[in-house]
Each structure stands twice: as structure tokens, then as C-alpha cells.
Amino acid sequence: MNAIDVRDLTRTYKSGAEAVRGISFSVPPGQVFGLLGTNGAGKTSTMDVIAGLAAPTSGSVRVLGHDPIRERRAVRHRTGVVLQSGGLPGELTVAEAVRMWAGTMRRPRPASESIDAVDLTAKAGVPIKSLSGGERRRLDLAVALLGRPELLMLDEPTTGLDAESRRSVWTLVRGLVDGGTAVLLTTHHLEEAEELSDSLAILHRGRIVAEGTLDEVVATYRAEIRFGASAGRPPAGVLADGEAVEIEGRHVVIRTGSLQRTLGRVLYWADGAGLALPELRATPASLETAFLALARGTETLEAAS
Ligand SMILES: Nc1ncnc2c1ncn2[C@@H]1O[C@H](COP(=O)(O)OP(=O)(O)OP(=O)(O)O)[C@@H](O)[C@H]1O
């Protein structure tokens, strides 16, 4: 059974804002599903429905086979959630807060084990209000881990964490996933999505615009060759159909579905013309390329062909 099944989900706010406009995806056990997107794309609106905090406007959501609102009791003990606003009382110490949460669970891990898993043992006696932003984020994660969840929902879990803490959270998440936990992850850190996601979807204005494994998503975007505009555009015949050439600022930019072939042609042209291509750079497609293409409103290769 899938940890999450989302079918034709929409969510419209009272203001009329259509935050989610008909999305479907599934997350099997033991996998990380990355939900990515531009600001306001609908990630948090989707996560809230899956976490049982809001009802869908239409469509259906199943979490571990259950309706996350109507069958909340069946779901609550089997899931862990890290949302953007962790709401633990600031007067309590780290250890007190984690023990308090453990008291509400059926078979919690020992509080010290959860605290240790997020490297907060040295801060166990410190009041939450004195923690740094990154330490609070790790405390939220410690609480989410307490119930040995089958599904972890992580909404931007490493925002505000330094590079070392971020990596230790990644290692922790991968360890849980190797043990069979499913993870729904939203993040603005593309490196994090690349590092953790077994599959991912990119949301844009409430719709999924790209979905699949990292390789599948990236393969639908174009690689880029760029060099100084002083060299001029390659003449007709150098590039194949469907390869776009533009002048962007001081650079000639060529976007292509076949980096090796196009680069070969460009270099052959430049050699023949006795041109040195200033600041030549060839960049394969990546999640970053995909995002920049979204921001520019550029079509994917599939849509363009
Ligand atoms: N409570 C609300 N009332 C009305 N509109 C809302 C509400 N919450 C979010 N929205 C709108 O819904 C859309 C999606 O917002 P959402 O927070 O789900 O996006 P997001 O992908 O999580 O964004 P970000 O990356 O900026 O956190 C946005 O246009 C936002 O303005």
C-alpha cells in the first residue's frame, strides 16, 4: 500500500485563490518524494491537506490508506510532521518538550534517542526560546521522529540550517528511508532535492509541470551553451532545428536537447572561422536549469517538439 495517494486534488481558499488545481501523485513506502516549486506554487497548501490540517476542495487524499481528517486517529500515530511553523512552548527545555510529546504517543522512541538523532544532546537542558533557528528546526525533527513514523512529512526541514547540520539531517532522513519510512519533502534547496528524492514533482501555479525521477525530470529540459556576444551568433546551418539561440545580456546562449552534438558543431564552426569563443561555458540540464526555465516561462523539450 502507498504511504500517500493524492488524486485530482484541488484547494481553493475563501479569498478565491486557487492554490492547488488538480494534482495527482503517489508515494510508496521506503521512498522520498520531493514536492518542489516556485514561491506560491501550492506546496504548503498540498502538504496541509496531506497532514490532515485542511480539507481538499475536491479530489481525494489517502495517507496509509486512510482519510487524514476523518480517520485521523488511524493516521496520527503512524506519521510524523515537520511544518514550517513549529509551535512548541518556549519555556520548556528541549528534553521536557520531547518527553511531553512522547507522553502522547503509543510506542515512542526514548526521548534521548530522538534528541541524539538530531545532534541536540548538548542542548537537552536549554529552554526552547534560547535555541537558534536551526536548533529549533532540528527539535521539530526530533519530535517528528518520536513515534517511529511510517510516513514523515517535511516542509522545508533544513531552512535556516548551516551546511553541516543540513548534511546530518540528510543522513538521518536517508537512514529512516532505508528502514522503510516514506518521506514527503518540500524544499527550496535544489541540492537537497537532488540528494534525497527518489522521485519528485515540480509544482507551478497549483499544477504539476514536471514529474518523475530526477533524471526523467531533468531530461525534459535543455542544456545550455553560452559564450561572449562579441563572437557573434553561429550562422544558419550550424545548429539543428529546435535549438534556440538568443542574446542574453553580454552572451550568446544556445539551448539544446543534445549538449554533446551541439557543442561539437559550435566548436567546429568556431575553429573553422578562427574564432576564440570568450567565456565559453557548457552546462548540462539540471534541476536548476528546470527552475530557471520555469521562471522564464520556457517550454520543456516535450512541449516544444
Ligand atoms: N490562508 C490563505 N488564504 C488565501 N490564500 C492563500 C492562503 N495560503 C496560501 N494562499 C495562496 O495560495 C497560493 C499557494 O500558497 P502556498 O503557501 O501553498 O505555496 P508554496 O508553494 O508553499 O509557497 P512558498 O514556497 O512561498 O512557501 C499562493 O498564491 C498563496 O498566496
UniProtKB/TrEMBL annotation:
Signal peptide per UniProt: none
Source superkingdom: Bacteria
Pfam families membership: ABC_tran (PF00005)
The keyword Transport belongs to this UniProt entry's keyword annotation: yes
Residues annotated as domain ABC transporter: 4-230
Biological processes per GO annotation: response to antibiotic
Record's bilayer topology term: Peripheral membrane protein
InterPro entries in UniProt: AAA+_ATPase (IPR003593), ABC_transporter-like_ATP-bd (IPR003439), ABC_transporter-like_CS (IPR017871), ABC_transporter_ATP-binding (IPR050763), P-loop_NTPase (IPR027417)
Annotated keywords: Antibiotic resistance, ATP-binding, Nucleotide-binding, Transport
Protein name, entry field: ABC transporter ATP-binding protein
Organism: Cryptosporangium phraense
